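seq as requested:
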Amino acid sequence: MRQVQFDCREIVSRNLQIEGYASTCKMRAIISSAFIALSLFGFSVAKDEFPNKFHSIYGCKQINAVTNYNDPVHYLPVEEFDHVGTGSNYSFFRLGVFGRSDAIIRLSKVPKPYHNNIVHEIAIGSGLNNFIEVRRQTRFNTLVFTNHVLKQVPTPNVLSETEPFVIRMDFFKDGSVTLTKDNETKPFLEFSDPNAEINFRYIGFSNWLSKAIYFFDCPMYNFDGRVDKLNW
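struct tokens:
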């Protein structure tokens, strides 16, 4: 007996009533449409998802770190950022970094902390990109300083030269600070300093063994809290 082949597209478009084929073809069309819609919309609206890693730094400002750890750092006033979120007892912002290791973030109360001033330093990818270290640093001048380690957590291969490492930094009124990776809700690092205020009025960027590129004043994405300029 000769096998007869039917084209589902023809059956559906012409509304042909061919026993055993019409309903099957229509179901295939519905399933196919559902998969197309899901691929176009379903995965793109998930909260805080950035399938393209570079989307996470879209709209950020960029700055390259200084050449040497002890080179004078240009401190940026956070109050001039366009994207700072505030909650009932905290403030927060997003930033990102490209680099091989030893990305240095410094937080200061003054724009030039080189006269016995205290700054707090977050070294991301220290130990050849194996851990994050938080330090209280006293700067006597641009070359003379002391570091006191407050916390160290293992973070192997946290930095990359091919995609940005983007975090949210939260500063709470009780003096604690948390760091949370983009697309995550639980902080991977929390610290405080019982002996000195952690002030983030100014932020600066440095490096140690390798160059780093920083992205700051990044737009917010689906975070709880009001996005506004910081009220001091």
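The longest helix spans residues 22-42.
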